[in-house]
Structures
1.
Amino acid sequence: MSAVDKCFTTDHDDRVVMPPHSLVTDTEDNKYTLTSNRPSASSQAPIKLADNDLETLRAILLGDDYDELITFKENAQNHYKQSESIAKVVSEALAIRSTQDNSVAETLAPTIQKALTRSIASDPKPIADALYPVMGPAIRKSINESLTQMLDTFNQLLEQSFSLKSILWRFDAWRTGRSYAEIILLKTLLYQVEEVFLIHHEDGLLLQHASLESVITQDGDMVSGMLTAIQDFINDSFAVEEGANTGLNTLRLGELTVFIEHGPKAVLAAVIRGKPPESLRQLFASTLEDIHRQHIDDFNQYNGDSSPFDCSQPLLEDCLKVQKQKRKTNLLPLFILLALLASAAVYWGYSKYQQVEQQQQEKLAEIKRSEKEGQQWEKVVRTLRLESGLIVINAEKGQYENEIEVLLDPLARQPSQVVSNLTTEKPIVFITRPYLSLDDAIVLLRAKQTLRLPAEVNLVVENSVLHVSGEASVSWANYLQSDWKQVMGLQQLNIEKLHTYDQNLPVINALKLEIERSKVSFDKNKAELSQIANGHIKTVSRSINKLIRLAKQSNKGLEIRLIGRADHSGTEMFNQQLVLQRTVNVKWALMLLSVPESLFVNALPLSKQTKNERSVRYQVILSDQ
Amino acid sequence: MVQKKICLMGSFSVGKTSLIKRFVNSLFDDKYHTTVGVKIDKKEMSIAGTDLTFVIWDLAGEDDFASFRPVYLRGVSAYIIVIDGTRPHSLDIALKIHHKSQVITGGVPVVFALNKYDLVDQWMLKNDSLEVLQCFNSPIIKTSAKTGEGVDDIFYQLGLQLLPSDSM
């Protein structure tokens, strides 16, 4: 600081001491001296002395600082050098001042404004190009905001509508976090971006191309050329002012729509089939901006070689959006198929679950069953052992069936019948071997079967003793007493409680009466048996034989006495003889008819004839034996 | 692969489209179809070991009535001006086009094609009029779309001019 002060002071002093004439000269001289070389100035004659003196004086006063002061002075007076030295500090100075107050901004603002205005007025393109990456997103943001506002209003209107589809769409809106109106817009659109071309803005050459695999594409180079040519033609024909974001935006041809986004260096053209939403443009625009940002240098150095742009391929492929609208009618079979598949899967899962469940249950049941089976098995064997007329000699459990070997009385129940009310897991196979049981129950059965048991008789077998009670005929009692030992297993017979009766007695009495009432008649003085008499004797003989059998059954003694008679005519002698003859004839006739001779007892002598008849009568004599 | 935009210009009916057809598809058709606007074709060539793709803009022919559209020249790497040897007027138009194009493109390489060389006996172009072309110091090639003569040479000459200096 002091050095600078000194410099100016010296300069000032210098000028003050100079005469007016020499001031100019001096000034000019000085100028010359300063711009060229200082020592050369001292070579000039008119001021040489004074100069020398001054120089000497200055040298004495300032010493080594003097040269530096001169340099400063030179720099301060030279514009170029001054600018050079200010340039070194100007940005730092501005920065320091900016931190202190706002004067820098205030001072520069009008200038910058004027500069910008002039720049844009002369050529707007550089500014537009520079602003393009900034303006694009900003504008989109602002458009988005206004769209959102519009959609909100739209939403309110649509809130009222209500249908199945709207419910589904509302669900979609809720799920995706979008507004309902947005979902409606999306759902009703149907499009697919088939091809995307990145075309150099200047020459229309193709930089990069992406297409859906399913789409048959034309030569991208030629298409991009033609697209550019068309745009050029239109721009030229309709005198559109050229610049960024101007030019053909949309081409439509039947189902195809071509969206064209313009950038300063490149154009992005997308071929879309269907109804593309305007929102697609945002995607294309931002893609184009990204490409611009990434390839600034590549664009500037572009000479027809598109290989530097290969890395933008993924960006372009991201633009190949496919939005499909679901058609109800087409989906119905699919839904049905899905439903069928789902139900089949559910059924399969359920049956599988059941199977597993069943297996588990079976395992549990198996355990229970094996326990139960053991119990059941024991019960079966026990029951069989308790059964009369049946002896278990072997019982074996097998893998699939159980086997029981038994001795079985023919009168006993079949073993399967015995255990028919018992359940067993495995079937039982019975092997039976016959035997005779001495069990009381079986012996009783055997007795009942063997002895022709009358209805009124009851049998009880107890400890091999047959107790017989009730009423029975004498004959059966006789039969019992003679035949009870035929019943195997009986040791003793008890008939104390058996009441007997003779069932033949009425018949015997009837037969007796019938025989005694009948008579054999003879002709007068005859002892020969007439035909009638023979028939009569035949009838009587049958009765006598029957009586013989019955009397024998009832233990009755039977005798028949023939009583002959004659009429009162004739002599007594003759009559006696005749009667005897008659009796003998009848006796012989009866004997010929199987009536045993022993049956007849001697006829009583005819002491007194009471009846006047020619006959032989019978007298039946029964006696208890 | 280096791509180059090439414009093909000239008076109407000088055979621009036929030249392209011959160059690209090796075909020739006697029938005349006028080109409306512009027609784009592509041909790949290897010149001095460098693969080049020519994207050829076949511009509609011009006459005194159909105006020249400079917009198509934007970004062009080189251009071809076709002259019909049987019609001297086509040379006049070619010169006009060349002049305008040089101004617009800032002096990109050019090749002049003197077409319909198969009809050389009917040519009405005098040698002195061709001297004008020689002043431009650009290749002048006699071509015939019908026989194919000189067609490939046009593009070969163009390619040579377009190759980067280091690959020469």
2.
Amino acid sequence: MSDPSRRTLPRAQIARRRLTAAAGWSLAAAAFGILALAMIHILGLTFVRGLAALGPRILTRNTEGTGGGLHNAIVGTFALSLGALLLVAPLGVTVGIYLSEFGHGRFAALVRFLSDVLVGVPSIVLGYFGYITLVLKFGWRFSLAAGAVTLAILMLPYVVRTTEQALRRVPVALREAAYALGGNDRQVVLRILLRAAAPGVLTGLLLALTLATGETAPLLYTAGWSNYVWSGRLIHQPVAYLTYVIWSFIGEPFRSAHRLAYAAAFLIVIFILLINGVTRFALARFFGESR
Amino acid sequence: MRRLTATAAATVPLILAVITGFLVFYAARAIRFNGLAFFTTNGWSIGNQYANPIHVHGILAMPGMHFGIVFLLVGTLASAFLALLFAFALGIGATLFLTEIVPTRLTRPLSTFVELLAAIPSVVYGLWGIVFLAPFLARHVYPLVARLGEAVPFLARPIGAGYGLLTSALILTLMIVPFITAILRDALLAVGPELREAAISLGATRFEVATRVLLRGQGRTLIGAGILALGRALGETMAVLMVSGNALNTLPERIYSPISTMAAFIAAQLDSALGDQTGLAVRSLAEIALVLLAISILTNILSRLLLRTSPPLRV
């Protein structure tokens, strides 16, 4: 057929392949463009409307019906997520230590796998579980304790995994040196490894905190809602929180309600972005890598 | 130390067991009452709450009470699979663009920016959907889609107000696309330069290298990432609750029709279910939660088998 010494392709074929490539890359660029644009638009809308709605009175007043301020919700969001963090931090870090330092067998593999499963459990399922156990069975009713415990379950696998990863990044030589100096497990883990891995562990805890502040579904039927500032009671008193304002108030037909929803969304998003930025920066500093 | 930390680690299996156990225990009466009809019939009704309670199979119920969730299964599966389809298209395209075209120095920062989509809370997506996306689509995009797809009954008018299946799927797409981009990007960056060099030296264009050489080896990774993303889409609550139109007992006739999903339905219906004096409605919601739990465990096992690594965490 064709002369083997002439190894050029037909011109039409070259043109067709170039055209396919150009079309394909245009589509790929468009795909990236759509995602980036959506991201920018979401942030832009939240910032523009949120900042316009924000004022000193919104921060200092409580919600009154569909108006007022967000003071009670801000306090409630902090109480709920910090409470959950206090519950989950000791447990999650301990499990992370186990998986990184002692977990080589089947049991550890199972824990790792189930922890991944727990990440994937829909948050509304956790919320419903919290409702039938904590709220109904234990009789805590809508309360800070019920909301915080539910959030803690949601955060647990994140803390476990980030702690394990942070500890694994600590060089083996450090462990060897610590054991060679006669340290026992307890001393090596608590005094040497945790100290070396502290930035990574803290990062994980902070990311889990941002997760908790942005959640709504697990709180709907555990924390409830209240127009008043949380008074410090752990049970039998419902708590206000910011994400509830976003979900519930944007559906109201009043401008005052919408303003509160925008302001709440702005506060949540700016908090999450700040923590994300800080932790990424910290990670890059401490581990010399950009994530 | 070893024993103490191992004991702490046991809480993870324990928590999952307790969640499953409590849901099964609580839903038991509803499971017996509903039987298989729960999955095969359509219609959710708490019956006539003013009538005298009756006994059905020895269970106290109200006349006319029936719990069939076909409309929820259809809404959940349709929105999630549609979202997965869009997410594959956008995710693969964007990742190829970021790893093969954009200068290497910009690859990480730009991917991080796109993956920030996963850090935005569900309820903020819902807000964005209500304030911008649903009205925007109903006004500018859906009329176009309807005109182009006039012959296809599923795409034809009426388009409604923008709250429904397609809008839910599009929001879900943005929420799950980071799973695909993150996993695929890491897999592509891990491919050594030899493959690319070999393909280019054979005269392939860069696009052919990307689609026929690089992507070809990623089938398993893509399916694993896809199942993981699907699992998240199936269980997503707040955003869907806010833009789905919250259909009750109706099946979607077109792509714009209101739907509801299992997760959104649990969040939306608890108040009304609490009005049921027999408690069967609340317990049937627990049965839905149990189905969601089973789905999430199943998708995790599948993606784990395919990916052989842990899924990326949010953020």
